[in-house]
Each structure stands twice: as C-alpha cells, then as structure tokens.
C-alpha cells in the first residue's frame, strides 16, 4: 500500500461503538499503517471490547518514549443511545472495503447486526463509492433504539441460537452446520416472518427475532425479560415444529438443528441476493464491495459472485467490527487527501513486527521447546516434509493479519490429502465435528482443483471443489463439496508460496489446509510468546517461528 508522498502526523483511531469488538489503527509519520484487534493482546479474551488494550500495545511498540504528537482521534468509551450522532459505524465498514478494493467506483453493501449511523441504529446500508468519496443511498429499517429488531445479522444470530449455539459470535458454526441440513417445515414457517420483496428490499417481523433471542441468548447476554405475548406464541409454534428439545451445552446435534441452520442460511442468501439486485439498479455499477459481519458468510458471498449481477465482487479481510478502526482511518485519510491510494494489493498484514532478538528471547525463556532447524530455506523444506508425513505445524511470520481469519502469518498448516486431517484439527482445537477447515492454493493453480475463477486472497468465498480433486484433497472439502478458499500469489506472501511449492514437490499438490493458530476459546496468537505457549498447550508437531523450526522437548 502506498499511502502518500506527504508526511502525515501521527494519527490514531480507536473503536467507538458499543456491543462490538475493539480494535485500533495507527498511521505512523513514515506512512506505515498498523492495526490490531484488542482481543489479541492484553487479557487475550475472545471478542474483547477494550480498544484501549490494543491502543496501549501499539503505542508502546511504535513509540518507545510516547512523545510523538499530531492529530489524535481516540474513542475508548461506549457510545450510548444519547450519543449516536457521534458514531459512523456503517460508514467505517463501507470505507474500509471500498478504499481497500482498488475500484475507482463501486456499489457498497454493508450488512451486520447493528451499529450507530447518522443518529440512527442501522443494520443494513447501501452506498455508492467513487473517487469523490462515499455516498449513502439507502438505510432501510433504521431505528432510534438500543436493539435493531429488523436486522439480518440478529436474524442469523437467532437462527444459530435456535440450532443450539450457546453463545454470541457463533455465526460461523451456524454456516458450517447448514450444509448438513435440508429443506423442511422450518424454512416454510420462517418465511412467514422474514422474506425479500421483488424490488430487493426485505422485511423481518421483529417479534420473530425477539421470540427466539428472548428465550435463548437474550436473558443471558442482554438481561432481557420475558418476550411479549405474540413473540411467545411464535416461540411455541417453533418449538412445536421441533421433534427434539432445544439443544443444551454438550448435547449431540440433532436433525432439527441441521435443518434450522439450513433454513436460516437459505433465507439469508435470498435476501442478500435481493439486496444485491437492488443496489445494482440504484447505482448502475459493475463492481460491488461487501462489508459488515454478514460479509463473513463466505457461502452467501459466493452466491452473490456466482449470480453474475456484478462483474466483480470484493470483500475486505476484516469486514466485521475488528476492521472498524482501520475503516475510520481510511476514511479520514481520504478526506484530507482525496484520491489517496489505500489499495491493499492482497496484503492484510497490519500487525506490528517482532525483532529477531524478541523471537530468540521468547524461545530461550520457554523451557518446553528447542530449535530443530533454522534459516528460511531449511525451515521451509523441513515443514513441507513434515506436513507431507501427516504432521501438523504452526506457522508464524511477520505482522499479524487484520480480521478473524488466519491468512498465512498466524496459521496452522496440514496435509489436505489425508481424509482424517479435518477431524484431527478439530480435536486439537477443541472444535465441533461438523466444522470445515479451509484450503490455501497457489493462485495460478486454482482452476486445477476448484470450480472457480474467483480471486479469494482473504478466504471470502466458499467455492466448489472439483469432483476429480475430491480424491486428491479430501480434507479441503466440506460435506457439500465446497471449500472456503484462500488463493495465494507469490507477491502476496513469498515464503508461504515457497512452502506450497515445496509441498507440491514432495506431495504432488500445491494445496495446504490453513486454519487459525489458536486454541479453544482463544483469539489468534499475536506475539512470539503467545505462539510458543499455544504450541506447547496443543497437540501440534512443530512450529515455524519466523526462520526457526521449533519442536517440543
């Protein structure tokens, strides 16, 4: 990314809305941008909302004496209903995805749970991006309230709760489970309360969402009381459709759970396609950028791409709220210098760098490990050989990725040829049996294994695995024979590309399984010390830590 030939002041942007993940983005005087989600540092609590943790961490790393001055724009307090005018949540989403896309002009669709926008609580917004900036076109179902009751994001959270998810932020599990379901009475009943109109707009009956969340996650996380009489009547009807009770923690997944997830996913896709058609008509653009938490639904993203409504579909690496601070920074930079180049060029690695000394010190202080090999060439060759033998290796390089998905700097890598790889990874990470793992492939070899011409550097799309490739890379495919694909060019990440090349030479395929480097209920590792402690706590065989190959004593 080339930001500008100008020297900017030290600019700091924190997270400024409530009920969302915290994060921070900083632009240094030399033009370099650093960004980090708060969950990865400090108390390392998944979905941490404390932006101050990330702010202090980056500030300490980037300025040893904390004496740099300039334009500081810091928000580290929750913005309540009385202060909605101060926050532009959806604008931040739109700014990150549009300005990082490289498009000169584009339609922009933002869909999430909720966020303050222009004095309202929004959950869906339609924008038009151009070289002049970003213009709001529509903000349907905006409310002056604490909870967006007609939100697609909340709808999908409710579907997950109805399918037995026990916590917030488990929409990815719902998406994975949906592939095991089929059309049922749940779909037909749900469509009475949520549907898309012929013009692409949509309707959600608020009592439908309140009925489900009011009997599941609402009391636990929001402190809600009993739902209304009508909402409770809807809940009873839903329960009557189930052939089994609502799943509790630790209980096995039922056919009902699978079919409920399927119904929710199908309805979400229908509405997203409708919104895509609508924004196409309103803007006349050939490109579309997606953002908001719903843009993490790679299955729906792929349906939009496959529909042909737009020629090109772009999803930024952090479409959810851990990209808020970076989006706010991008918007600010464009305001002070319109036309500034903020294109990512497939580079999502905004985390701070760690010196060789820091890495060696971390290794020396961790008595449970030792160095087996060192030097990039030897380490890459050894990692390829180990993975080809069925071993699973942690991979730590450079600055961490922005966003919730490991893209090759904080990854766990494994052999896609072994049909047991997914099962073993899920066991190592303490994940449910039904959750898929993602493949990474050389970009120029994508069509050899996957039925797509999409560029997917940020794991944004679930694509079909070719039938002839299913026998070659069985662990890469989900039960519906799709894969959340990452395409990798040599320019994007040379060392990881070299590993793919080495693995192809010993194993015959330029594909690896790539999942996030974290243990159960942990965020992705950030520091060398995080990587070493997580490696020691998990059943991983080896760890590549920059140019060191680490094993356990």
Set out the fold topology:
Layout: E1 11-14, E2 23-27, E3 33-37, H1 51-62, E4 72-73, H2 89-99, E5 106-117, E6 120-130, E7 133-138, H3 152-162, H4 171-178, H5 185-190, E8 194-196, E9 202-204, H6 206-214, H7 217-222, H8 229-241, H9 255-283, E10 287-291, H10 298-307, E11 312-315, H11 324-336, H12 356-365, E12 369-374, H13 376-388, E13 393-396, E14 410-414, H14 421-429, E15 438-442, H15 446-449, E16 461-464, E17 482-488, H16 494-507, E18 511-516, H17 528-537, E19 542-545, E20 548-552
Helix pairs in contact: 2-11, 3-6, 3-9, 4-9, 6-8, 9-10, 13-16
Describe the structure concisely.
It is built from 17 helices and 20 strands.
Describe the structure.
- The protein is globular and about 65 Å long.
- The strands form four sheets. It has a nine-stranded mixed beta sheet, with helices on both faces. A five-stranded mixed beta sheet has the order 7-6-5-10-11, sandwiched between helices. A four-stranded mixed beta sheet has the order 3-2-1-4, with helices on both faces.
- Helices cover 34% and strands 19% of the residues.
- It has three domains: 81 residues, no CATH class; 215 residues, Nucleotidyltransferase, domain 5, CATH 3.30.420.40; 197 residues, Carbamoyltransferase, C-terminal domain (DHBP synthase, Alpha-Beta Complex), CATH 3.90.870.
- Helix 3 packs antiparallel against helix 9, helix 6 packs across helix 8 and helix 13 packs across helix 16.
- The chain is an alpha+beta fold.
- The protein has 17 helices and 20 strands.
- The N terminus is likely disordered.
